[in-house]
Amino acid sequence: MATLEQLESQIQKLQRRADALRERKSAEAIAKIRAMMDEYGLTTADLAKAGLGAAKKRGRPPGSKNAGGSGKGATGSRLPPKYRDPVSGATWSGHARPPAWIKDAPDRSAYLIDAADGAATAKSGAAKKGARRGRAASASRAAGAKRATRSAAKKSSKRVGRAAARKTARKHAPAAA
User: Which part of the chain is the DNA-binding protein H-NS-like C-terminal domain (predicted)?
Assistant: First the structure.
């Protein structure tokens, strides 16, 4: 039976052999790669362009649509900013998870954006929203009028026939603007 010392020495010998074999195999692989790069005229810059060089960063690039966070350049939030970090200039709307720069603040009022800045931002956002609502409301009113006309025509068609329904539909149709 082998002693513990003998087993440990065998393990060390096998480990050295495995390391030497790994070195030899990796040197062969590197030589093959260099030969192929020379054959096709590739450089390490070409590998980096193809995304094969340095490890890629995870996530979306800053400033892209739906980028995480609410720092400068982020366009993910539709709410106007309510708080601003005086050091970095990053903003936060006050909704969702608070960013690290305000998370542990005992009094967040120190980070509030001035009323004039916030009002201007909120006003421009409200004006845009109101304009969208105006278009949507007028479209919905027109659609409602069409529906009412159709339902009136359907009711009368059941009662008096198609000719009367057409007359009723023309009579109740909104005037073209």
Answer: 81-105
Q: How far apart are CA 168 and CA 73, in angstroms?
A: 57
How many CA atoms lie less than 13 Å away from 140 in the CB half-sphere?
Answer: 6
Residue 73: its pLDDT value, please?
Answer: 47
Q: Measured between alpha carbons, how far is 121 from 77 in angstroms, rounded to an integer?
A: 13
The total domain count for the chain is 1
pTM, entire model = 0.28
Cα dihedral sign for 159, 160, 163, 168?
negative
Radius of gyration of the chain (CA): 36
Q: Is residue 24 part of a domain?
A: no
Instruction: Write the pLDDT tens digit of every residue in 129-147.
Output: 554 555 555 566 666 666 7
**Residue 20 binned pLDDT confidence (cut-offs 50, 70, 90):** very high
